[in-house]
Amino acid sequence: MPVVHLVDASFFVFRAYYSIPPEMADGEGRPVNALYGFARFLSDLMERARPEYIAVAFDESLAGSFRNRIYPAYKANREPAPPGLKEQFGRCRELCRLLGLAEFGSQEYEADDIIGTLAKRMRAAGFSSTVVTRDKDLAQLIALGDEFWDYMAEERFGYAEIAPRFGVYPERMADYLALTGDAVDNIPGVPGVGKKTAAALLARFESLDDLYANLHLVATLPIRGAATLGARLEAHRAVAYLARELTRIACDMPLAAEPARLRRSAPDLALLGEFYDRAGFGPMLRQQAERIARTAA
């Protein structure tokens, strides 16, 4: 079965920005630390994995997705990207194109939704997916034959390894996060329901819907505080269902992306060289691009 690599770009761009000194700048004084770190990561990934099909997904806005209309406080706890980082995102997307990679972004949807939509479409076309990320939310996309690749930790998880690693099977991850909430994204959960309790509930019930259809059975479970847990879940039913609207990845967004578009092409070495020259990068990335070009279709 052919494989498509789906890259959660924003994590790697942010990581580079905060791990490489901001003093790294091009000839015009513009910071290039995030661009350089992302270029290193992406080039290493290409050389190591040699993907035939690949797409790179970017977040374009922290406060403009459809989730903010559902819940205005969604991600409101996050600071806006610093100007020195925000400007580099556009150059990171340009880098993808010069490397011969399909890249996507949306003001309405998040990178998770782009990856989810691409995974669903490619699965229908006979592909399995390798999702390159550290974000547990994306574990909900993993089906049999797919892989969650935590590139920085050198760890890979197939469908059967998701529950031991994250607490629940992929198809229950959105419900799990709806019960626990997600402080990182400012998503509320059911008060008093932590990771262990949510995992125990979803080991017994197939989904949030199944749980709420059988709240009378919760008191019989070997869970601490089970006697009062059903009443607490009932009192916060609306919160749990609101949270699931936020935690569930949209896999049906409008996106012009047929499988052929995700097939990588050879890097444009001439333009890529000029791009690296403007950024003030040394010869290592150029040499790597030449090696990558030899593996392209």
Task: Provide a descriptive summary of the structure in words.
The chain has 297 residues and is an alpha/beta fold. The chain has two domains: 211 residues, 3-Layer(aba) Sandwich (Rossmann fold), CATH 3.40.50; 78 residues, DNA polymerase, domain 1 (Orthogonal Bundle). The chain contains 13 helices and six strands. Helix 7 packs across helix 8. It is elongated and about 65 Å long.
Summarize the structure.
This protein is α/β, with parallel strands linked by helices and 297 residues long.
Q: How many distinct beta strands?
A: 6
Mean pLDDT: 95
- Silhouette: elongated
Query: What kind of sheet is the major sheet?
Result: 6 strands, mixed
Count of the separate structural domains:
2
Distance between the termini: 18 Å
User: Oligomeric state of the chains?
Assistant: single chain
Under CATH, the homologous superfamily of the largest domain reads 5'-nuclease
SSE-based structural type: alpha/beta
- Integer-rounded radius of gyration: 21 Å
Unreliable segments (pLDDT under 50, ≥5 consecutive)? none
SSE order in H/E notation? EHHEHHEHEEEHHHHHHHH
Strand order of the largest sheet: 3-2-1-4-5-6
